[in-house]
Write a structure and sequence with these properties.
The chain is mainly beta. 10% of the residues lie in helices and 63% in strands. It starts with a helix and ends with a strand.
Length: 200
């Protein structure tokens, strides 16, 4: 329920984009390729060892000034979870929806290099794939997340930049409501990324 409320709030914020465009700030959209590295976790005698994967990230950012911006993000990836000693494994499609405050540290929008730091919140929806398990059905599970990150935009040509960044997501490890997958532990997904930014 909390994740659905977060997704609704983010959707409503997207409807505010036309209103933001009437202010004196500026907007940008980026499309990025991500690496996804969830940390191994342990609890209740189990160890969760996720696989690593690639994915994509779509970002909209509105700058109020040379210091402050807000952004909404959607990311998708797929990786597997391996649990020992139960020898249980599952794969899931993962959907990330986040909202963050971004500080661009006073660098002007036309700077050749523009670093940034960010912090925010949102949710991850784990949509499990039952193939390869002894279960014919696995529930979709959501987790609240805390987001932090940093990066730099490198201006290439007018209206376009290359973005290099890192996002860290902290959340409770998924267990799909199954005893052989329950660690009840916090984990972190490290997401380095690279992409193209369009400024308008």
């Amino acid at each position: 329920m909390r994740i659905k409320a977060a997704v609704l709030a983010l959707a409503l914020s997207l409807f505010c984009i036309p209103a933001l465009a009437q202010l004196n700030g500026h907007s940008e959209v980026s499309v990025d390729f991500t690496g996804n590295f969830q940390k191994q976790t342990s609890g209740f005698g189990l160890t969760d060892s996720p696989s690593y994967s690639g994915g994509f990230l779509i970002n909209y950012r509105y700058h109020f000034s040379n210091w402050s911006a807000i952004e909404v993000n959607y990311a998708q990836n797929r990786y597997s979870q391996y649990f020992t000693p139960t020898d249980f494994a599952t794969q899931s499609n993962n959907h990330e929806v986040t909202l963050a405050y971004v500080s661009t540290l006073g660098f002007p929008s036309d700077a050749r290099f523009r670093p940034f730091v960010e912090a925010g919140t949102g949710g991850i929806i784990f949509s499990a794939i039952p193939a390869g398990t002894s279960y014919s059905y696995l529930p979709t599970q959501d987790r609240m997340v805390f987001l932090y990150g940093a990066g730099v935009d490198m201006r290439a040509i007018p209206h376009f930049s290359v973005r290099l960044g890192y996002r860290g997501l902290l959340y409770k490890a998924p267990d799909f409501e199954l005893p052989p997958a329950t660690t009840n532990a916090m984990t972190q997904n490290a997401e380095p990324y690279i992409g193209i930014v369009f400024h308008f």
